[in-house]
């Protein structure tokens, strides 16, 4: 191993996470397409923004792996969903994915603590904290869907909320 290189196990672990970030990027693009198809322009706009964030997460992680002198090995992941029973179900899946990503980062932190790879722990801090925000927003979205379950025509108020979310990011 060259000086300062990631361990083989860490290289594989982080490479897989880069693939997961790109998977999530495509997942968000797919959800945005469905939202647009259903004339939910606020949702579509926010989901596109999120997709860009996910792309940045993958890029930043890949650059870190490269900075350590390792290779970025991207495994082939699962197919991207493109159809949902309802918009609410689509956002339930979004929340599930964010929970899965959160758990993955917690496991990465466990691994870098065990390896005493402190640089990787410090680098991953951004991702761990970002997941707090992702889960909070997902919870907020699902709460809004739960409020309109008996009044589906109120979906436009939920769509308006996504413009707010999108504006918050700028
Ligand atoms: Fe991400």
TrEMBL record:
Residues 4-149 form the Ferritin-like diiron domain. This is Ferritin. InterPro entries: Ferritin-like, Ferritin-like_diiron, Ferritin-like_SF, Ferritin_DPS_dom, Ferritin_prok. It comes from Paratrimastix pyriformis.
């Amino acid at each position: 191993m060259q000086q300062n290189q990631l361990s083989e196990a860490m290289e594989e672990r982080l490479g897989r996470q880069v693939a997961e970030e790109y998977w999530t990027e495509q997942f968000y693009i797919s959800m945005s397409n469905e939202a647009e198809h259903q004339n939910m322009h606020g949702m579509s706009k926010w989901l596109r923004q999120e997709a860009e964030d996910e792309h940045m997460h993958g890029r930043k992680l890949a650059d870190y792996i490269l900075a350590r002198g390792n290779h970025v090995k991207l495994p082939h992941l699962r197919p991207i969903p493109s159809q949902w029973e309802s918009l609410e179900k689509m956002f339930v899946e979004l929340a599930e994915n964010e929970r899965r990503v959160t758990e993955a980062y917690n496991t990465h932190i466990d691994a870098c603590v065990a390896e005493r790879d402190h640089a990787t722990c410090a680098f991953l801090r951004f991702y761990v904290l970002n997941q707090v925000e992702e889960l909070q927003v997902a919870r907020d979205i699902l709460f809004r869907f739960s409020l309109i379950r008996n009044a589906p025509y109120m979906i436009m108020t939920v769509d308006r909320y996504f413009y707010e979310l999108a504006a918050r990011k700028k």
